[in-house]
Amino acid sequence: MSWRTVVVSSSAKLDYQMGYLVVRKDTTTKIHLGEIRTLLIESTAVSLTAALLSELVKKKVKVIFCDEKRNPSAEMMPYYGSHDCSLKIKRQTTWSDDIKGAVWTEIVFEKIRQQKCLLQELGKNEAMLLQEYLGEIEYGDATNREGHAAKVYFNALFGKSFTRTDDLLINAALNYGYSILLSAFNREIVLNGYLTQLGLFHDNMFNQFNLASDLMEPFRPLVDRLVSHMTLVEFEHTQKMELVNLMNQEVIINERCELISNAIKIYCKSVFDALEDADVSLIRFYRK
Q1: Kind and range of the H or E element at 17?
Q2: What is the extent of the structural domain holding 262?
Q3: Pairing mode, if any, of strands 12-17 and 20-24?
Q4: What is the rounded CA–CA span in Å between residue 230 and residue 250?
Q5: For residue range 137-191, what is the model confidence (pLDDT) as tens digits?
Q6: What is the C-alpha to C-alpha distance for residues 106 and 93, in angstroms, rounded to an integer?
Q7: What is the largest CA-CA distance in the chain?
Q8: Of 22, 48, 76, which marks where a domain is finished?
Q9: Which DSSP string corresponds to 69-98?
Q10: 80 to 50, 100, 139, 184: CA distances (angstroms)
């Protein structure tokens, strides 16, 4: 099972050799492709061979490219992530609005519940208000409890004047962490044979990752927890690596302790089972 997140943060040449990723700098490092789950190219001074990229696709390694500011800007996705992807996509286009609405309701409930748990953990009184919102959630979140909870939640975490649109280090850290999560969800969606563009609730014509944007919602508080504990006087390589390493932390899912990266895999598969069988009881959420 792949588990490594490999980060290349300075000038290097990357190529493929007999099953290994070869990183050539002042010294040469070899890492077996079977161990790599994600390859993060943080520097624009990195060159890669087409042979390596081809093998990374075959091994289903998620490759993320960063811009000149070292922020994730693109990712590499295979055309075919599953042997039966044509069948899966046909089914995806026929998921009923009823089951999509039911699954989205479960996702929103769990997201707010995780937000409430984080506020309780931090001793914030606003957790009580989020508990009230949980009791008010309607099918498809028709009354937008998610939006109301988000305002209360972020103000409790980062201060009354905080908004997600402000140009702040906190928002830079949140956005970076969310982009790592989004990429992990895109990987699992493609590996399961589905299209990332067709969401349950998110339906932005300019968003290629509507489905990942839906599924990742309950996992956002994991990023929020980490950022809330960071003392941000800058947001550079060290802070970014803290967020990348989030994927190697552990949570409980299916009554087992799993890495977050593997919990995402289990959760995504359970959501797809729920959508295919029209049974939301099949969804498996994590516990911190």
Answers
A1: strand 12-17
A2: 85-282
A3: antiparallel
A4: 19
A5: 999 999 999 999 999 999 999 999 999 999 999 999 999 999 999 999 999 999 9
A6: 20
A7: 59
A8: 76
A9: TS-EEEEE--S-SSTTHHHHHHHHTT--HH
A10: 18, 24, 34, 17
- Residue that finishes a domain, picked among 76, 98, 116: 76
> Is-contact 77 190, C-beta < 8 A?
yes
Q: At what angle do helices 127-136 and 145-158 cross, to 10 degrees?
A: 170
Residue 217 among known ligand-binding residues: yes
Contact between 232 and 212 (Cβ < 8 Å): no
Answer yes or no: is pLDDT of 1 > 80. Answer: no
Same domain, 65 and 148: no
Q: How confident is the model at residue 25 (pLDDT cuts 50, 70, 90)?
A: very high
User: Does residue 133 belong to any structural domain of this protein?
Assistant: yes
| Confidence tier at 83 by pLDDT (50, 70, 90) | confident
Q: Which amino acid makes up residue 43? A: S
Average pLDDT for 282-286 = 98
- Cβ-contact 259, 249 below 8 angstroms: yes
Dist. CA 155–CA 199, nearest whole Å:
28
Q: Token digits for 189? A: 């969606």
What residues are paired with 20 via a beta bridge?
Answer: 17, 32
Q: CB–CB of 38/183 below 8 Å? A: yes
Q: Please tell me the predicted confidence (pLDDT) of residue 80.
A: 78
229 is in an annotated binding site: no
pLDDT range class, residue 78, cuts 50, 70, 90: confident
The predicted pLDDT at position 288 comes to 83
Cβ pair 130, 119 in contact under 8 A: yes
276 is in an annotated binding site: no
